[in-house]
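Q: Could you fold this chain for me?
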Amino acid sequence: MIVPDGVLFGSSTAHKQLRRMLVEDQKLDAVVKLPGGVFKPYAGVSTAILLFTKTNSGGTDQVWFYDVAADGWSLDDKRTPLLPEDKLGPVPRSALDGEEHGKNNLPDVLARWAERNGAERERPRTAQSFCVPKADIAAQGYDLSLNRYKEVVHEAVEHRAPKEILADLAKLEEEIQRGMRELEGMLG
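A: Sure. Below is the predicted structure, expressed as structure tokens.
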């Protein structure tokens, strides 16, 4: 089922009941987040694909999340191809290299979907795809937005000491003032 992103995290009673029902009463297998613009020029809203099995008796154990960043086409109104035709679609005729994967995630989605009950369960939540246990989703009020569970790693950045920066600024200011005095002297 393709849904607007708002369905994944909306606070209305209907949104909450739908998400709870998918997780508790059916078997929610996956949430595949699509990039905004994938349905342009018709609709620019961000969307997701919810993959579930209708069981009426539950069965959700782990939910697989995938953050699709690119589908092989530009995300503007023109939707022009970003790769040659043989490298487009979910099953391209030619293998994609790392740079091409950045322009078309669809083959990776299929490959990782096949591993969702195996190796995918071990992937860290910092990866493009990962699994989340049902208990974690229930604890978050059945919020199904990928960003609720994805972990962002912030790299430490070393900065110079503020006093060192101020000293450099003072030197630059002296040079500017010296230059200004020279210009004033030239002008008379």
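A (continued): The mean pLDDT is 94.
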